[in-house]
Amino acid sequence: MKKRSLSIAGHATSISIEEPFWQALREIATARSISVAALAAEIDGARTPETNLSSAIRLHVLAWYQARETRPAPVLPDGPGPDLTG
């Protein structure tokens, strides 16, 4: 686990999260076209007072990837499909 420094709302803070969570946080920020600090600030603003920021980040990463896994398949337009009987 590595300690990382971020600036959230103009205040320096540090978080300790495992490398896979840090990489995932960076991927999420990139997918949303925001900085890691901006994403961390969003997570910080949404967390409950009894949840520390490192835990809130882990939970956010987990929720992000769970949501990606449970997205429904796209609905195809009505119409004749390929003939699969042959």
Automatic annotation (TrEMBL):
Lineage per the UniProt record: Bacteria, Pseudomonadati, Pseudomonadota, Alphaproteobacteria, Hyphomicrobiales
Keywords: DNA-binding
Molecular function per GO: DNA binding
Keyword DNA-binding: yes
Keyword Isomerase: no
InterPro entries: RHH_dom, RHH_sf
Protein name per UniProt: DNA-binding ribbon-helix-helix protein
Domain Ribbon-helix-helix: 2-64
